[in-house]
Amino acid sequence: MESTFLVTKSFKHKVDCFCSSKHHTNTIPFQRGDRIELTEDIKNVEPLGWYVRIVVNESYQVYVHIDDLEQFHDQNLICSEMDLELEYNYYSYKVNASLDHKDQERFMYYVQKLEDVNYVLTKTLAKTSS
């Protein structure tokens, strides 16, 4: 299973708190380009279900319900790093093919897609290297 995901669209998520006082939630903003790493720390909280600890941008950690992570992925809010790199390669290929065919409309379309993917990849690299 892929353990590193990148945020492709900014969103906010309510995270449950498991402290012994009364039940409450915190809202965490995820920004486009954030890096989410899954850890091996998994907890089953009765009756809520399974939670996995994630590390965001190597700076803070939080437990997120596994179903929420799947929902983020299904809604294209997050994407595995490998999938995004493959997407970058595909769009690079399509840009070159549209140049070969002198198809300006497709060229412009794929350049925009390539720039979008490149933005997420480079923003993520900048966050982890700083």
UniProtKB/TrEMBL annotation:
**Domain of life of the source:** Bacteria
Name of the protein = IDEAL domain-containing protein
Provide the taxonomic classification: Bacteria, Bacillati, Bacillota, Bacilli, Bacillales
